[in-house]
């Protein structure tokens, strides 16, 4: 039997939405307050959904210790209490939550092979959330 | 096609143990969940059904019927129980959240005649949930 398992994680980070390809006026019109030059922060809530056959011997899709270990080490440690604009993956891309979803999806997809990655979902605030399911939806 | 989701809560205890594993293997794989005296959770169950809206009633499913089936088939059997010792399926199967979602699906699917079961979601905690769509 195939099941989907979803785990939630939190991290807090700052960012500024600003594109060098746009004029100051275009940035202001496009990003509004989010383009404030000093940046601002969010408590991000990350959901990682993996799927797979439920193992008969363990009753699990994957061991949570493995998933938690990977996400804490590779995602939470990387992003928590950081300025996203200064990280390599956002050197050329604006650190919108859309792009953050894609960056996190790619890290999990590349490094976590214990179960199939279905989806990364991020709540930037209680009112905004973003989902990314991989290449097919890109 | 319209999807309708009904929530319910139940509280139960469980522990994870596979008699085919050694004590060390059980401890290594299941960690704290292997404590033989068990531990408990407040589970939240979401049952999603789908169907065409009936033109006469405006319903996908009679919600009272759905609530009754959920109460009878799931909540009466699981709420305030030690899953490993009191629920027949878990006498031989480890009561992980994955297996709970599958078991709840198997209990509900044959009893829901008005609408089609789409998804069973079980939250073990607010930060961990499992979805089962009936996939073999």
Concise summary:
Chain A has 138 residues and is an alpha+beta fold. Chain A contains three helices and five strands; from the N terminus they run E-H-E-H-E-H-E-E.
How does this structure look, described?
The complex is a heterodimer of chains A (138) and B (136). With 138 residues, chain A is α+β, with helices and mostly antiparallel strands. Chain A has one domain: 6-pyruvoyl tetrahydropterin synthase/QueD (Tetrahydropterin Synthase, Chain A), CATH 3.30.479.10. Chain A has helices spanning 24-31, 64-79, 97-111; strands at residues 2-15, 40-53, 82-83, 116-123, 129-132. The longest helix of chain A is centred in the middle third of the chain and has 16 residues, at 64-79. The radius of gyration of chain A is 17 Å and the shape is elongated. Chain A starts with a strand and ends in a 6-residue tail after the last strand. The mean pLDDT of chain A is 96. With 136 residues, chain B is of the alpha+beta class. Chain B has a single domain (2-132), classed as 2-Layer Sandwich (Tetrahydropterin Synthase, Chain A). Chain B has four helices and five strands. Chain B has helices spanning 23-30, 63-78, 83-86, 97-108; strands at residues 2-14, 39-51, 81-82, 116-125, 128-132. In chain B, a hairpin with a 2-residue loop joins strand 4 (116-125) and strand 5. The longest helix of chain B has 16 residues, at 63-78. Chain B starts with a strand and ends with a strand. The model of chain B has no long low-confidence stretch (mean pLDDT 96). The A-B interface holds A 1-9, 49, 54, 57-61, 63-65 and B 16, 18, 20-21, 29-31, 93-99, 101-102, 126-133, 135-136. Strand 1 (2-15) of chain A pairs antiparallel with strand 5 of chain B, so a sheet runs across the interface.
